[in-house]
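User: Before I run my own analysis I want an independent prediction to cross-check against. Here's the chain; please return only the structure tokens and, at the end, one sentence I can use as a sanity check.
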Amino acid sequence: MINNDFIVSSRTYPFSDLHWTLTHGKPSLVKTPYEMKQFLMHHSDVKHVINELIVEEMSKGLSERKAKRKVEAEAKEIITRMQSRMNHKTVQFFSWFLHKVWRSIYEQIVVNSKAIDGLKKLVEGNKGNIILCPTHRSYVDFLIVSYIMFQFKMEVPHICAGEDFLNIKLVHHLLRRSGAFFMRRSFKGDPLYKVIFNTYVTKLLGDGSAFEFFVEGTRSRTGKMLKPKFGLLGVLMDNFYDKKVNNLQFVPVTINYSRVLECESYPGELLGEPKVKESMGRILNAMNILKMNFGTINVEFDEPIDFNEYQKAIVSEQGLNPTEVRADRKTVVEKLGYDLVFILSRKLIIQPTAICATILLHQR
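Assistant: Structure tokens:
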């Protein structure tokens, strides 16, 4: 089903984009950066790890005062790099900018209006935190779901992004103020980072924020689904089984592109060339894409997975006890990860570009 109000069109009237921006979107009730930092620094779990690290630093010869100053400074730096600074005015500006860009490079963006209505009812029903799980084929994935939710007057989600984006001057500030927060690829060997990240996610969920992350972890360069990553899923499950949230509603979102923006760089990466680091210079050099046609984006919101009901079925069928047994909790996490990937793959669309590529490869 095509929602005619959401087809990107080249027809505009004076101030139409400004009118669209001011009449869409919904402000998010979020903590200020200072309030969030204070909350994290004074949380009992974080303070416990900080005290342990202070003792460890003192064993290396530092005085208690210097050790405390060092560890607390490190904790504050982690929070500053990690946390979102969601700001509704920035979200409005970014949406206005994207509205213009999408019109320039895409023929249309197609969504299922019935699915959107279902998502709005789910949000309004308050039956658990909304966890959006899109496919990951392009950097546009970070933007398109928030853009759609802004279009349909819902709160935009907090998006879990990799720290790679912190290398892009100005852009990472824009992303951060539009809901992105940043995580490392690995927490191994850093208990302070791990406890701060887990506590931060718990606080976002506790505040009722919608949440978005990519179960595949990284962009698929081939168009095929990748194996799920379980790290963030595990954090979300811990919040559920430790009774810090009542329920989680996982919403699979399959994003289909006629042509991805990165189509020129993917072949080289697949042939073994190193991934090019993102930078402001590379973005400026890529501005010629505004003159190109990237066809259509089809966005499919699938039926949500009510995690409370989902895990009850698994626990009953396999005789698990994930509330108390960590190994059983891991089993549930892995089952959910693969089920999400399977659901996302069902909505993949065979694009004309893929058919042409297959024919060319077959006849080469």
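Sanity check: Residues 326-346 form the longest helix (21 residues).
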